Amino acid sequence: MKIITYNVNGIRAALRKGWLDWVKATAPDVICLQEIKATPDQVPEILLIEELGYEHYWYPAQKKGYSGTAILTRVTPQHIEYGCGHEDYDFEGRVIRADFPDVSVMSVYFPSGTTGGIRQEFKYRFLDDFQSYSDELRVDKPNLVVCGDFNICHREIDIHNPKSNANSSGFLPQEREWMENFINSGYVDSFRFQNPDPHQYTWWSYRAGARSRNLGWRIDYNMVSKPLQERIHTTKILPDAVHSDHCPVELILA
């Protein structure tokens, strides 16, 4: 199963940049999207998505043009779970899950704290609640892949300038500690499991030519629960996909 996570920073904008041709060429089995910023009725290309063989499940935010997640899949799921049972997060469409016979796949858009203290506190609450949600979920769904934009760089290797960003949301000590604890609770960072090299990022600022200079952050992950570790076949970042300020991350499970 080829799984791709992709924060598209607006599905309609990505479609205008040739995203559908990229999907056809890449041919993932499951695509986890974040920051879709649209409802299905606002996306006339849905028929073209279906023609490529994908079922599509959308969980947009209640606020128009904001946040939201979706899952596209060529394998019919047994069940789709919308939300995580927390009203504040479900209002923003931050979690959707598809259950297949031997694996469950989540698309999660973690909050950003870059706009200030209120949202940073919201982010910290989300992190704590998501950890509890994950702990409970893995009792019934031990084979779990958590795909998404975590809005956190785990370690110094995951950010282009750790010293100057030491006080930046997304690289704060408390956030990084949470990430470490989340992984230790029963997950494998699938990309780092196979790729120890530096200078591999998934998001770049639109300013100052950051992408062309590869001044990025690795904040998009496919986290694999421990029972699936032996099935990690291939994982890679796909920086040549330029439909967003993020790029996709691919995981193939054997």
Q: What strand line-up does the widest sheet have?
A: 3-4-2-1-14-13
Helix and strand content put the structural class at alpha+beta
Tell me, briefly, the overall form.
globular
Q: What's the β-strand tally?
A: 14
Average of the residue pLDDT scores: 97
Cα-based radius of gyration, to the nearest Å:
17 Å
Low-confidence stretches: none
Oligomer: single chain
Largest sheet descriptor:
6 strands, mixed
Provide a count of the helices: 7
User: What fraction, in percent, of the residue positions are helical?
Assistant: 25-40%
Strand content: 25-35%
What this model shows, in words?
The chain is an alpha+beta fold and 254 residues long. The protein has seven helices and 14 strands. The termini are close together. The mean pLDDT is 97.
Could you give a short description of this structure?
This protein has about 250 residues and is an alpha+beta fold.
SSE blueprint:
Elements: E1 2-7, H1 11-16, H2 19-26, E2 30-34, H3 46-51, E3 55-59, E4 69-73, E5 79-82, H4 87-90, E6 95-99, E7 104-109, H5 117-140, E8 144-149, H6 173-184, E9 187-189, H7 190-194, E10 203-204, E11 216-217, E12 220-225, E13 232-237, E14 249-253
Parallel strand pairs: 1-2, 7-8
Antiparallel strand pairs: 1-14, 2-4, 3-4, 5-6, 6-7, 8-12, 9-12, 10-11, 13-14
